[in-house]
Q: What sequence folds into this?
């Protein structure tokens, strides 16, 4: 059963259970999807996710071209058999969109610590 979660605190709690964040960057006509480690910021008014990007490369180029992204993450809990002999599973996931912005210099250490501890 799908449930839409919009409460920011509940979304933050869910994010702590995900290992990998999949980020979709716009690359011409098709998305360019990258699995990434991430950290979670402390902003109470919005969800802030920290990622580390190289100074050069395809991902950095795509961010400069268009900083709007899609994000997705999930955790699979278990598989189970249904009476009609099909297999299903229970899981938790998020799907969202946002923008990539540089981390201000005064938040760099906090952002990196968040990524490393997550």
A:
């Amino acid at each position: 059963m799908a449930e839409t979660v919009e409460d920011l605190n509940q979304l933050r709690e869910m994010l702590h259970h995900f290992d990998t964040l999949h980020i979709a960057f716009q690359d011409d006509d098709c998305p360019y999807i990258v699995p990434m480690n991430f950290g979670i910021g402390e902003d109470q008014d919005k969800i802030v996710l920290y990622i580390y990007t190289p100074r050069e490369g395809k991902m950095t180029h795509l961010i400069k071209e268009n900083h709007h992204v899609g994000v997705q993450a999930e955790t699979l809990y278990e598989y189970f058999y249904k009476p009609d002999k099909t297999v299903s599973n229970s899981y938790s996931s998020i799907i969202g969109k946002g923008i990539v912005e540089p981390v201000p210099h005064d938040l760099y250490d906090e952002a990196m610590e968040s990524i490393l501890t997550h």
